[in-house]
Amino acid sequence: MSVFLRAALGSLFLGAALSKVQGGVAGTVGYYTSLFEHSLLPVFLVKAHASVIMFVEFAVAPWLLSGYRLALAWKSTALVLVSLALGMVFAGKYDVASDNYVYVALALGGLVTSRFDRWVPGRVPESARGRELTVGEHAAARS
């Protein structure tokens, strides 16, 4: 199950990061600033978050998909999602915040199930090790 959550949230983060590329950091900072101009959050905090979020999303996506240190990846993912959800609460966008909290729940589900996740790209499962046939054995098996 964790591998499906990894694919879902990894693709979500990748899509979110790609959507920010066109405007760049300046466009993201401008959007965040306009979104949070009447909120209680300090402007420097909004600009700092907006300046790094695209890079964080680009980092989280392949990290989840790679399967490297999954527990830490899931915790980091949940932390990023909580920061986004809290931001939407302060911006008064409660519908978006509630969607983000669903993603937080999915990340926590990934954390709980990650200890059972054994799929890592390029790694041969332990159950299949030692059973690999050489080219000669493949030819002999076909005869």
User: Which residues form runs of ≥5 with pLDDT under 50?
Assistant: none
General form: elongated
How many domains is the backbone divided into? Answer: 1
Rg value: 20 Å
Q: Which whole number gives the mean pLDDT?
A: 87
Please give the share of residues in helix: over 70%
**Main beta-sheet strand count, sense and barrel state:** none
Strand segment tally? 0
SS field, number of helical segments: 6
The ordered string of helix (H) and strand (E) elements is HHHHHH
Query: Class by helix and strand content?
Result: mainly alpha
Our estimate of the beta-strand percent is under 5%
- Tell me the distance between the termini: 40 Å
Provide keyphrases for this structure.
6 helices; mainly alpha; about 140 residues; elongated
Written overview of the protein:
This protein has helices at 2-21, 24-35, 43-66, 70-91, 94-113, 135-142. It has 143 residues and is mainly alpha-helical. 22% of the residues are buried. The chain is 74% helix and 0% strand. It has one domain.
List the helices and strands and how they pair.
Elements: H1 2-21, H2 24-35, H3 43-66, H4 70-91, H5 94-113, H6 135-142
Helix pairs in contact: 1-3, 1-5, 2-3, 3-4, 4-5
Summarize the structure.
The chain has 143 residues and is an all-alpha fold.
